[in-house]
Every structure is written in structure tokens, then in C-alpha cells.
Write a structure and sequence with these properties.
The structure is a single chain. About 60% of the residues lie in helices and about 5% in strands. By secondary structure, the chain is mainly alpha-helical. The chain has one domain. Strand 5 and strand 6 form a beta hairpin. The longest helix has about 35 residues.
Amino acid sequence: MSKYNAGRITVTRDEKEDKVSIERIDRLIFWLFLAALTLIPLVIGAKANLFVSPSISGTGITSTGYQLDFFTYFKFVSLLIITLLSLGIFLYKVLFLNYKIKWDVLSFSIIAFIVSLTLSVIFAEYKSIALWGLYNRYDGAITFISYAVLMFIAIHITYPKNALSKLVYTLYPFVWINVIIALMNLYGVNILQNANFHDIFTLFLIDEMAINEGSVLTGTLNQWNYMSGYSAVMAIIFLTLAIFKGSIKSRVVNLMTAVASFLTILASTSTSGFITLVIMTVLLMILAIVKKNKKKAIVWLGIFIILASSSTGLLSKQNPKVWDESVGFFIKTNPFVKLDGAFLELNFPNYKVEAAESTLELPTLAERYYSAGSGRTYIWVKVLELVKEKPITGYGLDTLTYHFPQNDINKRSGMFDENIIIDKPHNFFINILYGSGLLGFLSLICFVSIYSFKLFKYVIKDKQSPIIWAFILGWGAFLIQGIFNDSVIGATIVPFLSISIIYAISKRNIKE
């Protein structure tokens, strides 16, 4: 028996009854987690909201008025609902069921991250954007605080025995829905031109607004780069499961799902996912060699490589850019490009414009080209220069549009075009550093390091489920692709929440 004090009233509690209630609460929270992992990466739809820009003379993305979002609004709403429900139930467990939170370095680092995000909003110049994010991203402090709250809850609940299998099931819908969309786009079929799909996607759109004619649905994430990076995470998870887990039937299903993820990477024509998958596949090869049944593991890995190679050739015939943005990163010669002729190099005299006896000399502008990483290194350098000016609390997440030197003439030599609006840093870690300062960045590095090193230690020391190996490798893929891509709700919630669940289950397995 235990006692619960509420003011002057002392209530004697039945510990066994509390334990049963806590298990029931944990099970309910876990089902909310499964809903988040399944639905948030998928839910899309057009929604117009009034956006008030802090820039009076802004144009395009910075204009005040009703702005259309297709990919993130409903994801954001879903994230908020699930976070609030989970937090409410968890607080009930703490306040009324006598649950004691186990404070450790991981818990403190997550709380520190929440505090740093709050401070970044307080000291931000554009507070509303720092809090909610831009209308087409919703990547402000509220979103990251929601991630952190769910992570904190996830490491403080107990999971059922079949939790790992259920975790895997949440990932299948994203892979198979998006590979269909990606391949349809590659072969010239635009799903938005279908009247039925168009009506569903615009159900909540006000009459005065419409989706632009010729718009293409890239998938259920905002842009091809995100589709590529997140699909690499899915590919390595399912490839690991195909190599190490289950019957032949389940291995075949997981192998085909890994191939489907790889096809999405190819169809996305973005290099980040391909590089990430190559790096993680090398690590998977090492794991296959050091584990038991290495022959079987190598066979399944070999089948994947054969299917992936064949797919690359097939899709490159349809669009040569598939090769350029995948294998072309390592092998520059594209065998699928036909050269019908050669361009002649034209040399023109070096004319000068003259007026009378004087020579009119025009200013010399930098040559147009992209810096390394399709302009990413130019953006990173400029953003880090901004960080030096406000290093502690940052500028607030998703506010880069209004702080980046948009009139910098060197955009010509970094981004090819000086008229491009830079609205994100194209690097997950630099984004946190810019938005929440050193406080948020160090908190992030702290819990990322704890997850990474402790889980790796658990795998080395103990015999863990292949599902745990799969999600750890998926976590590694997420961190690698984060070097090239920003955070978006649909591609960030799954790695953050799932690795928290994996950490809690692994820690419990070690204790038992």
C-alpha cells in the first residue's frame, strides 16, 4: 500500500491497482504513438490560411495574405492533437497513479531542449513565426516541443511484448503509397489531374483558391529532397529486417519493401537519399559479416543489390536524371544520355562599349554557378555567419527568410541566381543551431549522442531483436541525411519517436 497526499487529505492507494492502471495508460499512449507514426507522414491536403508577413514589401513566400499549404498543415494539426492527448494521459499517470519519473541525463537533455526552444521564441525578433513556423512548413518551436514531449513520454512508459512488430507495421503504408506516387510521376502520370483525388485534396480549400494548373504531387512529403532522404531511412530499416529477421515469406515482404523505398529514392532524383543508403549499406555489410548466419545474410543482401542495380538501369532509361542523381554522384559518365552531336565553342571578340574618347566600364559580376552540394555550402557559410551574431538563443526556428542576406550579390556564384529566396539552411543540425542557438544545439547533440552510443552499446553487449538493429540503422540514416536536408514534420516525427521507443525497450531488455 502507498499513500497519496492531497492537501490535508491522505488517500491510501493500492499499489497493485495502480500498477494495473499504469499498464493500461501506457498501452493507450502506445496506441497514440502508433497512430502518429502511421498517419502523420501520410496526411496531406490543401489548406489556405491567413499569413501576416513581418516584411511589408515582401513578395512570394513573404507576402501577407491567404497562402496555400498542401503538405504540412494537417500533419501539424495531427501532431498537436496526438501530443496533447498523450501529455494529458501521461500527466494523469504521474499525478494520480503515483508514477515516479526516473530523472537521468537523457530526460534532463530533452527538458533542456524544450527550455531552449522556449527561450528562442522569447528572444526572437519574429516571435509568431518562431513559435508556429512559416505557413508552408510549420517547423517552429511548437513542432519541436511536440517532438520533445513525445520523446520524453516515450522513454517513461512500458511497452507490450509485441510492440516492436507493431512499430514495423506503421511504416509499410508510407513506403507503398509513396512508391506508387513517385513512379507515376516519373512516367508522366500526375495524380492531381484525377478529378476524384483532386476533390479529396481540396476538400478544405476556400472557393477563392485553387491548386495551380500543372502542379505535381511529389509524394506525401513537401519536396523531392525530403522524399529521397526519408526513403533512405525506410530502405535501410526494411533491408535489415529482410537480412536478419523471420521466415522466408516475411523476408521477401521486407525485401520488396526495401526495394520499393529504393525506387522512391531513384524517382525522387535527389542525391541525398542515395548517398545515405550507400553509407548505411556498407555498415549493414559489416554487421552481416560479424553476426551469425552470415551466408544467409550475404545472400539476401546480394539479392537486394541485384534488384537495386536492375531498377537503376530501368528507371534511368525512362529519365537519365535518375542516373545523374544516384550512381552519377560516383560515376560521372551517364550511359543513358545519347549525344547526337557536339556543341561548337564560339569565340567572340572582346568588345567594349565606348562613348566618344571614354571607355564605359561596367561592374564585373561573379560567374553563375552552384557551390558544392547544389548551393548548400554557400547557404551553410552564410547561416553560420548569422549564428556568430546571436549564438546563445538563436533567431527562432523557421525565421531564416527574414534574416538571411537575400540581397547578397554572391548568390550568383553560390546559388546560380541572385533572385532566389533562401528560406531554410538545408541542414538539420545547422537549422537547430540557427533557430535555438547553442543552448538548443547542445541539448540536441546530448540526447542524439545518448540514443546513438547507448543503443550501439546495447546491440554489441546483448542479443537484441533484429527489429532493434533495423531501427538503430534507420536512426543512423536519418542523422546522415540530416546533413543535407532540413526537418519536416512527416520525415522527423518517425525517427525521433521510434528511436525513443526503441531506447526504452532496449533498456528494459538489458535490465531483465
